[in-house]
Design brief:
The complex is a heterodimer of chains A (169) and B (364). Chain A is an all-alpha fold and 169 residues long. Chain A contains two helices and no strands. The longest helix of chain A is centred in the middle third of the chain and has 132 residues. Chain B is mostly helical. Chain B folds into two domains: 67 residues, no CATH class; 237 residues, no CATH class. Helix content of chain B is 60%, strand content 7%. Chain B is built from twelve helices and seven strands. In chain B, strands 4-3-7 form a three-stranded antiparallel beta sheet. A two-stranded antiparallel ribbon of chain B has the order 1-2. In chain B, helix 7 crosses helix 8, helix 9 packs antiparallel against helix 11 and helix 9 runs parallel beside helix 12. The chains are: A mainly alpha (169), B mainly alpha (364). Chains A and B meet through helix 1 of A and helix 3, helix 5, strand 7, helix 6 and helix 7 of B.
Chain lengths: 169, 364
């Protein structure tokens, strides 16, 4: 009996072998030329563009960092300047205030001294006046009492001497 | 006991993976008997059961001339003296097609009345057809992908959509993790197209077998042999002077050792593609057989214990098959990866320039 449905796992079929080789070769050529070449080119192009973008982004970030650093430095400088100006202003104000107080104080002292002097002078004058008045009154009184016998000229001299003695004491 | 013995031949068919003596039984006769080897072998038709069969063209060399028939049926009814080998074994039976006059092929083995076959059978078979389908699918899918990239060029080649992302990640995986990793920075781009073609065609062929009506072309050793042969030729073509020096006259080895080493190295050239051939073929064929064996249990049980036992037992076999399917999906990717990875490795070994590291001890 002829083997009709004889099938084995390992069929040696040269026809299939040659066909497969031809078809595979054809597909390799077609796929390589029209599919993989453009596809791989697109992929590598995209990768390089992504790499480029990443590098650009990194550069931009670096620049931004640089700018930020510069800004920071400027800000710190400005702050320091402001602080200095403020301190100076406060010091100035303090100085002016102290000066003013000093001045006011000295003025007040001066005024006080002047007033004291005036008072002293006035007191002296008043005392002098008072003494004069008292002397006059005493003379008038004594005159009235001793009108007749007492020589007015002689007595005045006496009283003046007395007053001078008082002043000396 | 007799019933149990009835399925013994089927078990044998599965277990004895070698050429069997002729089994002159019509595979259509008992639908409860599944000839697994017949299922996974190459056919002259595409089976779309139960819709029908699409017969493939027959190209034969007879008496030094090429003969072409659009189908096996056409060859049988051409009047050129062709008959089906099955009719030769069963001369008193003739099976007609639906129209009642056209002789239908049974075994699809074309023989002359005296039992002689064509000098050379160059017919297009189902494995070849599905091989070509895989190629066309790669062409269509990745052609679309490539043109999509072309169109997206103006917005900076931004990938869009699931389709683009899935296949792009696979392409990049093959390029970076298979080609670049094994061949090296300088030369990998030259071999990436071949590796991509091989990877995706093998992957699609492996996956086709899981689809209804699909055929796993990679479960045919002829197909895997062709694939490995391409890797072999590309490897030898990529071979540098250093590579051939290492094969033919290993440097740094005593002269008399070369008597042993050189034949071993030359043998090694051929064992590599042989290993590629057998690994892919055996993995895919065994997976397919496993699926048929487990699903076949339904029919086996139906044959042994009655239809309803068979149908009831499907509750066990179908989850089992699904489990095998899951493994097969994984194995499809794995085997495509392994074939491509080893191809890249062999090419990488051949293409490597040792000039910059001459002190590597020649350990291999």
């Amino acid at each position: 009996m002829t083997p009709v449905f004889a099938n084995s796992l390992v069929n040696v079929d040269p026809g299939l072998f040659i066909w497969t080789a031809v078809v595979f070769f054809g597909f390799l050529l077609i796929l390589g030329r029209f599919v993989w070449k453009p596809l791989l080119a697109s992929l590598s192009e995209r990768e390089s563009s992504i790499r480029g973008s990443l590098e650009a982004a990194e550069q931009a970030m670096k620049n931004a960092e640089e700018i930020r650093k510069n800004n920071d430095a400027a800000l710190r400088e400005a702050e320091a300047l402001a602080l200095k100006l403020r301190r100076e202003a406060v010091e100035e104000a303090e100085r002016v205030r102290a000066e003013r107080i000093e001045k006011a104080k000295s003025e007040a002292d001066e005024l006080l001294a002047k007033a004291k002097q005036t008072i002293e002078t006035e007191k002296k004058r008043a005392l002098d006046e008072l003494r004069q008045e008292v002397a006059d009154l005493a003379i008038q009184a004594a005159g009235k009492i001793l009108h007749a016998e007492l020589d007015a000229e002689k007595n005045r001299k006496l009283v003046d001497r007395f007053l001078q003695d008082l002043n000396r004491n | 006991m007799r019933r149990a013995l009835r399925f013994f031949p089927i078990l044998l068919m599965v277990l004895l993976a070698g050429p069997r003596p002729g089994v002159a039984a019509d595979p259509n006769a008992n639908p409860k008997r599944i000839d697994i080897l017949y299922k996974i072998s190459d056919h002259h038709y595409l089976d779309f059961k139960p819709i029908g069969k699409v017969e493939l063209p027959r190209i034969l060399r007879v008496d030094g001339a090429w003969v072409f028939y659009p189908s096996t049926t056409a060859a049988l009814n051409s009047g050129d003296g062709w008959t089906d080998a099955w009719y030769l074994a069963h001369p008193d039976t003739v099976i007609y097609k639906a129209d009642g006059t056209t002789i239908a092929p049974v075994s699809y083995d074309l023989v002359k009345a005296d039992g002689s076959t064509a000098e050379f059978d160059f017919s297009i078979t189902s494995h070849l057809a599905w091989f070509a389908f895989a190629g066309v699918l790669v062409l269509v899918l990745f052609g679309r992908l490539a043109s999509k990239y072309d169109r997206s060029r103006k917005d900076g080649l931004v990938p869009r959509g699931t389709f683009m992302n899935i296949f792009e990640s696979l392409v990049i995986f093959v390029r970076d993790d298979i080609a670049k990793a094994n061949i090296g920075e300088e030369k990998y781009l030259k071999y990436t197209p071949y590796l991509l073609s091989a990877f995706f065609m093998i992957l699609f062929m492996n996956l086709f077998g899981l689809a209804p009506w699909g055929v796993t072309s990679t479960s045919d050793i002829m197909v895997t042999a062709v694939l490995a042969l391409f890797t072999f030729f590309i490897t030898q073509k990529a071979g540098t002077k250093d590579y051939w020096m290492h094969v033919l006259a290993m440097p740094g080895v005593p002269k008399f050792m070369l008597v042993i080493l050189t034949p071993v190295e030359i043998l090694g050239l051929f064992t590599k593609p042989f290993a590629l051939t057998v690994r892919l073929f055996a993995n895919m064929a065994s997976g397919k057989m496993l699926v048929y064996s487990i699903l076949g249990m339904i029919f086996l049980f139906a044959d042994m214990f009655g239809d309803w036992v068979g149908i009831g037992s499907a509750a066990i076999w179908i989850p089992f098959t699904l489990f095998i399917y899951a493994i097969k999906i994984f194995a499809s990717f794995l085997q495509a990866y392994i074939f491509t990875m080893f191809s890249a490795l062999f090419i990488g070994l051949a293409a490597a320039d040792h000039s910059h590291d001459h002190e590597h001890g020649h350990a291999h």
